[in-house]
Write a structure and sequence with these properties.
- The complex is a heterodimer of chains A (206) and B (94).
- In chain A, 81% of the residues lie in helices and 0% in strands.
- Chain A is mainly alpha-helical.
- Chain A has a single domain, classed as Cytochrome c oxidase, subunit III, four-helix bundle (Four Helix Bundle (Hemerythrin (Met), subunit A), Up-down Bundle).
- In chain A, α1 runs parallel beside α7, α2 crosses α6 and α3 runs antiparallel to α4.
- Chain B is an all-alpha fold.
- Chain B folds into 2 domains: 56 residues; 29 residues.
- Helices cover 76% and strands 0% of the residues of chain B.
- Chain B contains 3 helices and no strands.
- Chain B starts with 10 loop residues before the first helix and ends with a helix.
- The chains are: A mainly alpha (206), B mainly alpha (94).
- The interface between A and B is large, with 49 and 46 residues.
Chain lengths: 206, 94
């Protein structure tokens, strides 16, 4: 049994925290899964409108964000390796890079949505409701909800990484207690996984 | 105590997986810019599935974890596919 400085028993079970994280990830997968199901049905019923509406999206900015997320996934995965190898400085550096890339992703998203807003396209906007077909309205509704929910997950992921950085600096997360960093990594990879499907479905299939 | 042995994944593995993921991303952009008609969707989804397999296996450590975690992940994905198939059976044959 391990005890902390005050002599209290500290419970730590890496495998249990990993399973807990996976169970949570399953609920997230089914949340986005439901949205992907709605997308596939609407697309099936409005193939022409989805084709037209998807042309409006900027493939380059979508591709850039895909590359950014993939790189950030690698940096956070590597940070686990450096932590286990007791390279604290490298771990913090890799996590800082991950956070910077996450913020750049959000900035890109801001500009991307900004362009849509400038064109008068947002959920319930007059331009969208009056000048677009039903299928296109559905496409943009799903686009804003799904990329918005994904961006929210990026923000939460960034907060978890910040928490991991604080714990690593304090020394409560280290090579024998890596579960928090590993779970932060799992969450960040989940965000990457969802984007891997969002990118082709909204930006590529035109 | 639960200080089990961690499998330390070498940096090299992560770099190779990243390069593969980037290559697949550009390949999927390339393949969808060609007019393939109905096969565009299938092509893009196949690339996305290969990419997610790589992320799950290497970045999310399923390859190095105990087998039952992998079994649980597969189970959830199967449930999701079944859900899509049943929904489309309904739409197609109603």
């Amino acid at each position: 049994m391990e005890n902390n400085a005050n002599g209290e028993h500290v419970h730590y079970d890496a495998e249990a925290s990993k399973i807990g994280m996976w169970l949570f990830i399953f609920t997230e997968l089914l949340l986005f899964g439901g949205l992907f199901l709605i997308y596939s049905v609407y697309r099936f019923k409005n193939p022409e409108a989805f084709h037209l509406a998807a042309e409006e999206l900027n493939t380059s900015i979508g591709a850039l964000n895909t590359v950014l997320l993939l790189i950030s996934s690698m940096t956070i995965a590597m940070s686990t390796t450096t932590l286990l190898l007791k390279k604290k400085g490298a771990t913090l550096g890799l996590l800082a890079i991950t956070i910077i890339i996450g913020i750049v992703f959000l900035v890109n998203k801001y500009f991307e949505w900004g362009v849509k807003f400038d064109h008068g396209i947002w959920p319930g906007s007059e331009h969208l409701l009056n000048d677009f077909s039903q299928g296109e309205i559905l496409f943009f509704g799903l686009y804003f909800v799904m990329t918005g929910l994904h961006a929210l997950h990026i923000i939460i992921g960034l907060a978890i990484i910040v928490a991991a950085i604080i714990r690593i600096r304090k020394g409560t997360v280290h090579e024998n207690r890596a579960a928090l960093l590993e779970n932060a990594g799992l969450y960040w990879h989940l965000v990457d996984l969802i984007w891997i499907f969002l990118f082709p479905l909204f930006y590529l299939i035109t | 105590m639960s200080e089990e042995k961690h499998h330390i994944v070498p940096y090299r593995v992560y770099i190779i997986v990243l390069l593969a993921l980037l290559a697949l991303t550009f390949a999927s952009i390339g393949i969808t810019s060609i007019e393939l008609g109905e096969y565009t969707v299938a092509g893009a989804l196949i690339f996305a599935c290969i990419k997610s397999f790589l992320v799950l296996t290497y970045f999310m450590h399923l390859k190095y974890d105990k087998k039952y975690i992998r079994a649980m992940v597969v189970f959830v994905f199967v449930i999701f596919v079944v859900m899509i198939v049943i929904t489309f059976l309904d739409y197609l044959y109603r």
